[in-house]
Amino acid sequence: xxxxxxxxxxxxxxIPALNEALxxxxxxxxxxxxxxxxxxxxxxxxxxxxxxxxxxxxxxxxHPQRRGKGAALRTGFAEALARGARGVLTIDGDGQHxxxxxxxxxxxxxxxxxSIVIGARMRHRAAAPPHRRMANAFGDWGVAWAAGHxxxxxxxxxxYYPASVIxxxxxxxxxxxxxxxxxISAARRLDVRCVSVPVETRYRGCDGGPLRRSxxxxxxxxxxxxxxxVGQVLAHGDVWSEYRRVRAxxxxxDPGTGPVDAAR
Length: 264
What we know:
Layout: E1 11-17, H1 24-32, E2 38-43, E3 59-63, H2 69-82, E4 87-90, H3 102-111, E5 115-123, H4 130-147, E6 159-162, H5 163-166, H6 175-190, E7 193-200, H7 218-236, H8 239-247
Parallel strand pairs: 1-2, 1-4, 2-3, 5-7
Antiparallel strand pairs: 4-6, 5-6
Helix pairs in contact: 4-6, 4-7, 6-7
């Protein structure tokens, strides 16, 4: 593989991957149709995830042992910043996100240059498993309280972050907690808010085949996120007045993305 070149002013796509041999090559090929700069962070996979990408024009970084999604994102962010990225898109490696939505997130980022853009899973939400819908709604409630503004989908891994956000230091939390905390830290420390672009989550591969089982465990991971977020809420203070203020808001949706599909 050629030595990495500086890509000052470009946007990188960071894909954290743990045991994604089933879908990672397809995800990367589809992503390359829309973004030329792709960084895959193999988080200690044991199924040959990294080897599936041989011959593709991507940067593959590997953790010798599993360190969690938060660590994988930090590694990808550091690589992108070191090479001059002006921002980073993130998607998961299991095929659940449609890479064809990435240009829509970039268009929204151009309209909202000081915002995090989230691919909010608002289309055909009824197709999601009930326990996942409940877990997502509960997570949205807590993270919004801690961040100080309503967010349409705090659990989606399909996002755009401006460079100022991925450069934040000392963002606590590991695994899925890190993604929640990044929204909180960006709001509290940088006054960077979230705007959402409605997308549809895929529960089958683009070829109709199955996706691997999600690494997200609703009971375990929601407990970790909730206990972490509660600490953030208490640390910020004005707990009940802040709660009322946040609940009175509506999540910000990008007006350029069109209406949300009514089949929800």
